[in-house]
Amino acid sequence: MAQPDFIVNISKLTRAITQRGFGLPLILGTSKDHPYTLYNDITEVSEDFAVTTKEYRIAQRIFGQNPAPPQIAIFSILPGSMDDLKTLLLETVNEIVEINNDWYYLTCTENSNDVVESLAAWTETQIKTYWTTTQDLVLVNGLEYENTIVMYHEDPNAYVAEGLVATAATNDPGSLTFKFKGVQGVRGSDIRATDLSELHSNNGFSYIRKMGALQTTEGTATNGEYIDLVMAAHFIKVRMEEEAAFMAVNTKKIHYDRRGIAKLVAVVTKVLKIAGRMGIVRVDDNDNYVYRINYLRREEVLRNEVANRIYNGIDWEIEIAGAIHSGTVAGRFVI
After folding, report:
1. CA–CA separation, 255 and 202 (whole Å)
2. Dihedral, CA of residue 216, residue 238, residue 8 and residue 283, to nearest 10
3. For residue 152, with 0-12 CB atoms within 10 Å meaning exposed, 13-18 middle and 19 or more buried, which class applies?
4. Domain check: are 197 and 240 in the same one?
5. Is there a single domain that holds both residue 185 and residue 61?
6. Considering 69, 71, 72, 146, which has the largest number of Cβ atoms within 10 A of its Cβ?
7. Can you give the pLDDT at residue 21?
8. CB 132 within 8 A of CB 111
9. Do 165 and 276 sit in the same domain of this protein?
């Protein structure tokens, strides 16, 4: 994929801190050699994959949610040997992005620790997220990836993280928290309270029955960042780059003066307002989105950057809306 001319870098200063591909899950499978294919429902999947295959079961979990994404993609290979599967899958996913890169949620039929580590490391270099369910409580101990989501469930056919992808794919990026969410067709895990607490401390989470309802127990990536913030950052980056590119292509030229700089600032403003409407940006008491945009005038830019037609003078900041995950209510009896 060609490098964009306008690059957006985002630093998330919070740790305690239709759009391109954001609705499309990919299933990377190993049951047969099968090219990259889009499917609109589970019936179409059954024409290519037997109901006993893991590709079908993950697709069934995703399409079994309400709402479900309108499409999923599947790409499958038949390994000659399982000895170095992680390397083969890594080569395959690199091949996929050359064929079609218009997807955002990576899932895989293989969830061994070495495969998860390999795919997590790969996903960290992409504007994508990787979702997997493990039967190993300690897997997340060694993972520190912002784009990887690991859930625990002792049932290998639960595919609960993969099912949660449907919730992500059918909502705007950053518009909802991933704690308290239900995944249809999955029973609660039998995980013990002490193990769940340890899992949370390592930035994994599970799926249990609590207060009478089945629900996800947290909503973090394996580095501790909240999933909604990861997706929000990805969305803002991609949308700003797309808007800047569209403006550049449809403008005779971006003047290196107050007129051109104002056009770039307008792009940033437009996307931050979109992010506000999606629930990413905090609103103040007057229902205004809270963000700040600073920019340099031409006179404040280094002369060699002006000569080389480079402008790095815009810096913006938003106050995130966040989400409430827990709290205490105080009350008293009075006479």
Report:
1. 50
2. -60
3. buried
4. no
5. yes
6. 72
7. 65
8. yes
9. no
Query: 269 and 145, same structural domain?
Result: no
Domain total for the chain? 2
Give the structural domain span for 132.
25-224
Beta carbons of 120 and 92 less than 8 angstroms apart: no
Q: How far apart are CA 34 and CA 74, in angstroms?
A: 8
Q: Residue 1 has what pLDDT?
A: 55
Give the other-Cβ count within 10 Å of 66's Cβ: 9
Residue 13: what pLDDT? 46
- Angstrom distance (rounded) from CA 169 to CA 73: 13
Sign of torsion over alpha carbons 122, 128, 129, 132: negative
Residue 235 tokens read as 């969305």
Q: What is the pLDDT of residue 16?
A: 34
Question: In the prediction, which pLDDT does 224 show?
Answer: 97
Co-location of 105 and 197 in the same domain: yes
For residue 12, being part of any structural domain is answered with no
pLDDT value at residue 81: 73
Cβ burial 239-271 (10 Å sphere, 16+ → b, else e): bbbbbbeebbeeeeebebeeeebeebbebbeeb
Residue 17 is predicted with a pLDDT of 24
- Cα–Cα distance between 335 and 330 in angstroms, integer? 17
**Contact assessment for residue 301 and residue 260, using Cβ atoms and an 8 Å cutoff:** no
pTM of the model: 0.91
Last residue of a domain, one of 192, 224, 256: 224
pLDDT at 10: 61
Counting as low any pLDDT under 50, the low residues of the chain are: 13-20
